[in-house]
Automatic annotation (TrEMBL):
EC number per UniProt: 2.5.1.56
Keyword Repeat: no
Keyword set, alphabetical order: Transferase
Protein name (record): N-acetylneuraminate synthase
BP terms from Gene Ontology: carbohydrate biosynthetic process
Gene Ontology terms for molecular function: N-acetylneuraminate synthase activity; N-acylneuraminate-9-phosphate synthase activity
Record PROSITE patterns: AFP_LIKE
Organism (species): Alpinimonas psychrophila
Superkingdom per UniProt: Bacteria
Length: 344
């Protein structure tokens, strides 16, 4: 497949990331997939690694999360990844269910063995995680599959993003989407820097989107309005169930709101050439104009006592009120008669 399968005609492709929210249970993972399908999201994503493929079973400060981390302080990397990983035997049933429910299903590989494994499952697209943006051999291997690539730029400098894009193109990838991403968990809206998106599109000539680790929907909706073609959010059944990613994950009802809100944001952009539209016809009819406000007879003088600017339209525009004052009515007119020049 040479191009990223798209979602609806309007709005970005909404990717629901399960990550470690399965909490070690395949039935729960499948329940999350079903819940995602009910929201109208377009794709399900998981992550393909084991603790042994992504790190070493070493207990030293370098192999632990920093003490001050909001979610995983002081945790040994090996233990964290052992808890969070999705067993490879679960990939096929998760993918099959997602496809059966009409969604795209794909994954993030973290090493060459993961890519080889995912190729046996014929995934239609690959995601490169933020931290792996510097793993140019991995990016090259994924590019050589000929599949579209989505690359998160969290933690990356412009130069590192440029190297990743160059490696992907050199490897043969012709469909690249760069995701703005703040690689902190949870991320703060102040750190989203969404204006990177149009800048990346201009600099690198790629499609752009957002991998969103903030709480709530606002940042993703803003990204949709800025032209995101892909938006990725972590999803769980219930945050109260706990788990390594639950704190910054959406629940299904929130994901459904996100799908609708992003679609609305894109539709709302419309055209810079549009001013009054047919949708405003009734409001246009009700704009104020000049009316006879008290019964008048021929020979009466127009004054603030008998001519006013009121809703609806139909009479002269309000800007003409000074020109009507002092004129002589040439006919009787009851209150509610629109003011026209032929009344004088």
């Amino acid at each position: 497949m040479s191009s990223l399968p798209l979602g609806p005609e309007k709005g970005p492709l909404i990717v629901a990331e399960i990550s470690g929210n399965h909490n070690g249970s395949l039935p729960r993972a499948l329940e999350i997939v079903r819940a995602i399908a009910d929201t109208g999201a377009h794709a399900v994503k998981i992550q393909t690694y084991t603790a042994d493929t992504i790190t070493l079973n070493v207990d030293s400060p370098a192999f632990r999360v920093s003490d001050g981390h909001e979610l995983w302080a002081s945790r040994k990397l090996y233990d964290l990844y052992e808890e969070a990983h999705t067993p490879w035997a679960w990939h096929e049933p998760i993918f099959n269910l997602a496809r059966d429910l009409g969604m795209i299903a794909f994954s993030t590989p973290f090493d060459d063995t993961a890519v080889d494994f995912l190729e046996t499952l014929d995934v239609p697209v690959y995601k490169i995680a933020s931290l792996e943006i510097v793993d140019l051999p991995l990016i090259t291997q994924v590019a050589q599959t000929g599949k579209p690539m989505i690359i998160s730029v969290g933690t990356a400098s412009i130069a590192e993003a440029a190297e990743a894009v160059a490696a992907a193109k050199a490897g043969g990838c012709t469909d690249i989407t760069l995701l703005a991403c703040t690689s902190s968990y949870p991320a703060q809206p102040d750190d989203a820097n969404l204006l990177r998106m149009p800048a990346m599109a201009q600099i690198f000539g790629t499609k752009v989107g957002l991998s969103d680790h903030t709480m709530g929907l606002g940042v993703s909706v803003a990204a949709a309005a800025l032209g995101a073609s892909v938006i990725e959010k972590h999803v769980t059944l219930r945050r109260s169930d706990g788990g390594v990613d639950s704190a910054f994950s959406l629940e299904p009802a929130e994901l459904a709101q996100l799908v609708e809100a992003c679609d609305m944001a894109v539709r709302a952009l419309g055209s810079a050439d549009a001013w009054a539209t047919s949708a405003e016809n009734e409001s246009l009819r009700l704009r104020p104009s000049l009316y006879v406000s008290a019964d008048v007879r021929a020979g009466d003088v127009a004054s603030p006592l008998n001519v006013r600017s009121v809703r609806p339209g139909g009479g002269l525009p309000p800007k003409e009120i000074d020109r009507t004052m002092g004129r002589i009515f040439n006919t009787d007119a009851p209150a509610g008669t629109p003011i026209t020049w032929d009344l004088f």
